[in-house]
Amino acid sequence: TTGMYQNCYNLKTVPDMALGTMTNASSMFNSCYNLKVAPNLTITGTNNMSTTASMFSGCFSLTTVLAYSTFTWAATGTTTGSMFLTCVSLQPAGAVGGMNRVITTTSMYDSCYSLQSAPAYDLTACTTAGSMYQFCYNLQVAPAHTNTNAITNAASMFNQCRSLENIPAYNFTGLSSAA
């Protein structure tokens, strides 16, 4: 499904979908500028998803994302990098299921200017979380992520989160880069 609806600039609505054993959802709705509500996507296979990179990136009008609780991730090489990059109107963000198996969350919510809160995830396998919330100007409370000790790169993770009032006690014992 890579780029399945990519650059459908005027697309406003998408019906809910059952997607079977999908493994790659990268750029599926990338640059669908007028999409307002993300469809409910049900993945019926197990342990298959390897990437949702840039899945909704550039969906400037996207305001609502439902919880993607049926996403089940492959054991290795998984990424949600730039999944919601520049979804400037997003509020709120639904939780993505199975995040304990995701290795890279780089720029997942980067430049989601309207985002005030985000779901907390179990980041057991995550090693790279750089720029995850960068430029989320209205983010008020950092999500209470758990099992963050495997993260080695958190560079610019909360850069320019100007409204941030509280930060949970993360375990960053594995951190080697926060520049």
For the secondary structure, the number of strands is 2
Helix and strand succession? EE
**What oligomeric assembly is this protein in?**
single chain
Strand order within the widest sheet?
1-2
Largest sheet: 2 strands, parallel
List the uncertain runs. none
Instruction: Work out the radius of gyration.
Output: 15 Å
Description of the molecule:
This protein is largely without helices or strands and 179 residues long. The protein is built from no helices and two strands. Strands 1-2 form a two-stranded parallel ribbon. It is globular.
Question: What can be said about this structure in brief?
Answer:
This protein has strands at residues 17-18, 41-42. It is largely without helices or strands.
Strand and helix layout:
Layout: E1 17-18, E2 41-42
Parallel strand pairs: 1-2
Which descriptors would you attach to this protein?
2% strand; 2 strands; 179 residues; two-stranded parallel ribbon; little secondary structure; single chain
